[in-house]
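Exercise 7.
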Amino acid sequence: MWTGQRAVSFNGSAPLIYAPDGFRAGSSLSHWDISFLPDELMEPFYTAASRDLGLLLPALADLGWPLAVPSFTPRAARATATPTRTPRPTLSPTPTGAPAPGRALAYVSNFDDATVSVIEVASNKVISTIAVDDGPTGVAASADGRRVYVANFHAATLDVIDTLAQTVIDAIPIGGSANGVALAPDGVVGYVTDTFRDAVSVVDLIAGALIEVIPIGPQPAGIAIDIDGRAIVARFGGTSLSVIDTVSNRLIATLAVADAPPGLLAVAAAPSRAIGFVTTSRFGTAGTMFRIDTRLLRATAFYPGEAEAIAIHPRGSPVYAAMHDFDTGAGRVALIDVESLNTIRSIGVGHVPEALQVTPDGAWLYVANTGSNTVSVIDTAGQRVVDTIGVGAAPIGIGIAQVPLATLTPSVPPCAGDCDGDREVTIDELVLSVAVALDVTSPSVCEEADVDRNGVVTIAELIMATRSAVDGCR
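Solution. The predicted structure, written as tokens, is:
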């Protein structure tokens, strides 16, 4: 517990500090406990946007920091949940039928022609084709919908797509190869499986640079972020999953999948539950899909049948598994109940389906059919294919972004965050931009921080200001 006088007075009791069963570097004893309701700003997991500094200010005062407001008005003791010994961030799936504001776009990587097809979800039409580096595979979209990241296997790069301009704005060198990609919960760091180097590359997405290489074991392939913000990596060259702490960027555990044949290929983690799935693939031999407990780090059940790709509905069930006949290439998607692992339905799709992605509202499932150069669209409620879309050659990855409707483009204004108009963004100006974002000061103090002039400074605009500071003004 935190026993500082000001925080205790402010909270009504000694506030709990995050102390899980098993020390987690960067989180244990440096954050508030996850039991606070509503959530505190300085908890170890991001759950929702908040402008309430809460316990942070009195804690800083306890540490000796001089504050503009030296005293605090005590508020009623906050309701707390029963503390647990296992990290349990307060997360909930996106409710079906209530998509976030914006325009849903599906980004499909076409491996053989080095392009990304952009599909508008509302119309199921290809609205753009973007040239990327050689051998695009894994695709991941940022939470704010402003960026899409594409791993390029042959070029060993991570391309950055600006979703408003629909163009590649950066290509970050990775190393030996780039296969699967996943983003840390804070959206600042990306993780790319480097199959040739038996490692996971850690990328600073703000600086656009490789910052660390984590040895992981033979042939890492699929990667997913679990409910606790850890990266779960499937290794095609072995029978175990590797777990990376995205706070310390260290390999913290290995999950041996008992009785699994070598060749762990794809992994998916539920956004709202400590549950995931991993599939094995051995080019036509009998494969198996395993359900795993991402907190206990053990396999709890298996589903007979080889799958090339898996995805989990935002509600947490069902799990979708893409399979195909190795003689004919005919593909199907199996809808499987997460608890019982019973097959609910099998839906025919195109040839050799190798990627799946559910839209944020849970209404549609997009399936990349590598063997037929198409994308199948499945109505998740009606459990049937409602459209088939022609894309590029050998589509192999899908990412879905909820792109904001703002007309903001990277070239307007010429220098985001340049408060005094001298064509240079300083640390002081970045601090002013953050103060505007937190409503601590008026937007008029730094109008250039509010790029689209709507009276609010967003995370995306702060990122643009940071890029201005790091890369210089355009």
